[in-house]
From TrEMBL:
Gene Ontology, cellular component aspect: membrane
Superkingdom of the source species: Bacteria
Name of protein: YggT family protein
Family membership: Belongs to the YggT family.
Pfam families the record matches: CCB3_YggT
Keywords: Membrane, Transmembrane, Transmembrane helix
Keyword RNA-binding attributed: no
Spans through the membrane: 7-29, 70-91, 98-128, 162-183
């Protein structure tokens, strides 16, 4: 029975985390003003539309940001954590604590999206500079708002762009100092830390 629960938790975390990533990407795409005619953006819109469409009738946008996609990401994270706790310990725990853990988890995933987009962007700049592949264009659209403040601060280095290094450092510091400390302060169980 324990092996069956472990397998169920694995499948739940894998599929749930994938859908959570897609939902949060919908928020990120609107945040960075990505080109929604990109085929990858179209996939994300189609995958999230069934749940977002009814939510949009109730939850308004705020400053041009789709708050319904952010709320859906938090709700998906909350359901994922509650089901993981239920399968592992037989209880879902305190709903308020689950909500706090969900917000921490979504924030951590938000930072990871930018971190991995930066890694992909750096690699693409070496192997396929100026690529017009839909994936490469989407990665560049995600990274540009994160890199722009550093590019304004840093002097020109003769074609060498070190702004991703500073962006990596800031994202890693936010993860280490904010996310990890919040998870520790709220006594998040180790089984749930795998989700963030």
């Amino acid at each position: 029975m324990i092996g069956l629960n472990t397998a169920a938790v694995y499948v739940l975390q894998t599929l749930g985390s994938l859908y959570l990533l897609i939902v949060l990407m919908r928020f990120v795409l609107q945040l960075v003003r990505a080109n929604f005619y990109n085929p990858l953006c179209q996939f994300i819109v189609r995958a999230t539309q069934p749940l977002l469409k009814p939510m949009r009738r109730i939850i308004p946008s705020l400053g041009g940001l789709d708050m319904s996609s952010l709320l859906l990401a938090i709700l998906v994270q909350l359901a994922l954590m509650a089901l993981t706790l239920l399968l592992t310990y037989g209880t879902t725990g305190n709903p308020l604590q689950l909500l706090i853990w969900s917000i921490i988890g979504v924030t951590a995933l938000f930072l990871k999206i930018f971190f991995f987009a930066l890694i992909i962007s750096v690699i693409l700049s070496w192997v396929a500079p100026g690529s017009h592949n839909p994936g490469a264009e989407l990665v560049n659209q995600i990274c540009e708002p994160a890199l722009a403040p550093f590019r304004r601060i840093l002097p020109s280095m003769g074609g060498l762009d070190i702004s991703p290094i500073l962006a990596f450092m800031v994202l890693k510091l936010l993860d280490m100092l904010v996310i990890n400390n919040l998870a520790a302060m709220t006594m998040m169980p180790d089984i749930l830390r795998l989700l963030i």
